[in-house]
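Comment thread on ticket #2218

A.B. wrote:
> Attaching the input chain for the structure job we discussed in standup.
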Amino acid sequence: MAKIQVLDKSVSELIAAGEVIERPASIVKELLENAIDAKASAVTVEIKQGGIGFIRITDNGIGIAREDVPTAFLRHATSKVRTEDDLTNIATLGFRGEALASVCAVAKVELITKTAGQELGSRYLIQGGENGTLEEAGCPNGTTIIVRDLFYNVPARLKFLKKDFSEGNAVQGIVEKIALSHPEVSVKLIKENKTVLHTSGNRDLRSAIYSVFGKDFAAGLLPVNYQHNGIRVSGFITKPACSRTNRSMQHFFVNDRYVKTRTGMAALEEGYKHSIMVGKFPACVLKLGIDYSLVDVNVHPAKIEIRFVQERPVFEAIYFAVKSALEQEDILKSQPKSQRPELLSTFYQKPTRQTQFPASPSVPPKPADPVKETSLPPGKLKVREYPATPAAPQMTVQEPVQEYDFQAPKRSVPVSPAPQSAPKQVFDEAAFSFLKRENFQKQEQQEPETIIPEAAPPQPEPEQETPVIRMIGEVFKTYILFETEDLFIMLDKHAAHERILYEKLKKQIHLKQSQLLLAPVPAALSTEEMDALLSHRDLLRQMGFDISQRDGKLQVTEAPVVLSRYPLGEIMEDLAKNILLCKIDVTPQVFDDLLHSMACRAAIKANEDNTPEELQELAQQVYFDHKIRHCPHGRPVGITMTKYEIEKKFGRHN
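C.D. wrote:
> Ran it. Output below, let me know if you need it in another format.
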C-alpha cells in the first residue's frame, strides 16, 4: 500500500478551516467583512457563550441570490476576484472565498438571505461542510447567518478555546475594530442578551471612537489629516499627556482594513519622540489611504498582516502626519476658547506698563519720574545662557535678542552700573512680561516715557491691553509659577531649559557649522570604539566632525562650532558607545541621543538660584514657543490648571 495518499475531503476541509477559523472571533471577523462588502449600512452581532454556542450576524446589505447560495459555501467561491490581475488591486475586505466554507466545516450554519429583486428569500442549512438544504423563506433584504456549536466535530480544537468570558471579549475586540474602520456603518453588539456596543453610523470617526472607547479616551484626542507622497493619513492620536503604558490602543487601518504594522508603530512612536516619557506609548486610530496596487493583503488567511511595496513612504507619511498634529497642539494653551486668554498680536509692540529704557545708546535718556519699587543692584544679577536680554531695563530696541548659547555668558548690552543720567535700575514683575523675542520687529527710535495703564495708546491696539503672562514666583527652587488671564501654569525650569538648549544644538548641527581645530584633540578610546568611529567617518562628517588616526590613537580635527567648548574626547566616547549599542546601520539618531545628554548637562538645575528676570524670561520663551512642551526625554515641561478647575477644587463650583 502506498504511503503517500490524498487526504479525504472532510479531513482536508478541517485542515483548511483551521487556518481561517481559530476561535469565535475569527468567524465574526469573516462574516462582518462579508457584510461590509455587501454594502450594508447596519450590522448586528449577537453572541452567547462567548460565541462558542451561538453567533448571529444580521445585515441590511444586498443579499445573495438563491441560485448562488449553495455555491457560496464552496471553497474558493467568491464574487470579488476573477483574474490574477485582480489580486494586485484588492478593494474589498474579503477575496479568498474561504470564509463560509471554513465556517460550515467546523460548525452548524444557517443562512437566511434575500436580494431586492426577489419576492421570497432563501434559507440554507449546512453542517460539517456537506449535505446542505435550500428552501424558500420570508425575510427582509439582506443576510442573516447563524452559527451554532463551534468545533462540535473537532473536539481537539474545542479544548484549546478559552473561557466564555475571554472568547466574548475577543469577539468584542473584532467588532470594535470593524466599527472604527467603517464609521459609516451602524454596528451593534449584543452579548448574552445585553447590548454592549452600538455606533451611530453617521460617518463621524470621533463619534465611533466615543462609542467604542468612551468619553475620557475621546476627550484626549488630536485630529490628524495629512497627505504625503500620495498617501492619505487621517484619524486621531492621543495628546502627549494621555500616553499609556503599552501599545494595546494603537489601531491602524489600511484602506479601511484593520492591520498590524510594525512600520506604522515605529513611525507613530518616532513622531512622539521628545513629547512623551520613555516607557510610555501613544494611542491612535489612524487610517491610511494608499493605492491598492502598493499593498499586498494576501499574506495570511487572517488578512491582518500585510506588506507594503515600499515601507519608507508609509513611514514618512505617518511620521509627518503625527508631527503636524502635535505641532498644532499646545498643552500650555489648549483650553476652551471661553477660558483662553486672547494672545495680542501687538504684544511686543507697546506694553501697557513697562520700565524706562533708552531707545538707543546714542540718545541720552531723560530721567523718569520716581517709581516706588524695590531696587535690584546690577552687580548681583546672575547671567546665564538665556536669550540675551539685559538684566536691567536698559537695552537697545533695534538689537534682536540672542538665542540661548553655550558660549561664555554675555548679553546683547553689557550689564554695568547705569550712568547717572539714565533711569534707575528697577525690577518690576509686570515689566518683565514684555521682554523681546527672536522675531522682535524693529521700531522707530523714541524717547522713553512713563506709560500709565489707563492712558490711551498712541497707536491702534486693543482697548484694554493687559500683560499676557504674569510672573508669580518659584517653589522649591525648581518650578516656575506664572499665570495668564484665566490659566495657572507651573514650569519645570530644568526640563524647559534643557529642551531650549537641545533645539539650539539641533539647529546649529543641521546647519553644519563646523570649524577646524587649532590643535587636534585626542580621544582615549578602546580599539573597538576607535574602529566603530572610523568605520562611520562619513556619518561623522555629516554631523560636522572629522577624525583621523595617528600613532594608533584617534584624534578630532574638526568639530561643530556649537560644540567647540565641550570636551570633544568625552563626546567621542559617548558617540562610540552609542554606535556600538546600535548593532545595525547607524543613523543620525545616534547623534541625537548625544545632543540630549549635552543639553541636560548644560541646562540650569533644580535647587539652583536664579534671578526673577531669568525665570521670567524662561517662562516667556516657553509660553510662546509651542515646541518647548516636553524635555528631550519626553517629560512634560509644564502643567496647567484653568481658573475654573482651581475654583472647583475649592468648592466654588458644583
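A.B. wrote:
> Thanks. Noting for the ticket: The chain has a mean pLDDT of 76.
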